[in-house]
Amino acid sequence: MSDRQSGHGRKKNRLWILLIVVIVVLLGIVIAINQGGHEQEPSTEQTDENETVDDVQTAETNEEETEPSEETDTGLEFPYLLDDDKIQIDSLFQYSGINMDAQNEECEDVASLQLKNNSDQYLEKAEISVELTDGTAFSFEVEDIPAGKSVMAFDTANTAYDGKTGVALIDATTTYSSDAGLKETDVKITSDDNGVQLENISSDVLANLKIKYHCVMDDMYFGGISSETEVAGLAAGETTTVDTSESILGDAEVVSITY
To answer: For the chain, what percentages of helix, strand and coil (3-state, to nearest 5) are there?
Structure first.
């Protein structure tokens, strides 16, 4: 009788233990699920917060981009055409060194102009005035530029340019010629280390030759004002060396011969 009761009691204890284990396992699962849900919520909140910050930064950036920039008076744009497109002004810039257009005076940051003869004629002379937006004025003189050639000219008063102020006005008074040239049927021009030579390839004596030339640097005339030299006479077949000593900053290039 006691053994049967004892066996029955042990069986009943096992059921209680099993029930307790099941309850513990279920509680553990519930706790785990709840903790997982709480761990995900901060992540969602952080994501929302990051998106909000990104939206604010994007909006601020867009506001900065849409704000109007400060207006600056840049003046005329280059290249600038004038005289019925016969003259092209490529730039206004600064130059320091020897100003060949101001009696070879030393200069620093002098106003300088790059110009091209766009016409099909010989540009005998051009007087060019430039006025900046602040009222500063410059004067340039250009002589003896064959068709299609470019030149760097410098302010004849050796006036400095700040390099920043815009150009308000450019005006020019010009003279062209269809006759000026190199007389290539009568005179042959050659250049070497000894200078420039002229050879009379005609059958006649050439007298009182006037030769105009420019200093050349980097395939561009350097200095707007040309130089001139003379040859008293040149017999048929004779060759002479031209005095181009005024071309002190580069090679000399003859642009015109008259006699």
So the answer is: 25, 45, 30
